Amino acid sequence: MEKYRFNVFGRILAIERASGEWRCFAIGADGKRGPVNLAVPPEVAHGELAQYLYDIYHESAASTDADIFEIT
Hints:
By secondary structure, this protein is mainly beta. Helix content is 12%, strand content 40%. β2 (11-18) and β3 (21-27) form a beta hairpin. The radius of gyration is 12 Å and the shape is globular.
């Protein structure tokens, strides 16, 4: 299973691929995961996830959290 974490304008999202489908989860300050209603097409590759997230969430950007990046 592929697992990735992204900082999306200050919000942490976990994105996992299982059985060819992407699943998305919000990570709370306490470390708990909750499902996110975000459909990521299965043809989106790992290297395209940050741009895809930007395209979806760019209107949520604040001047202090103006970027999306992968957390390793």
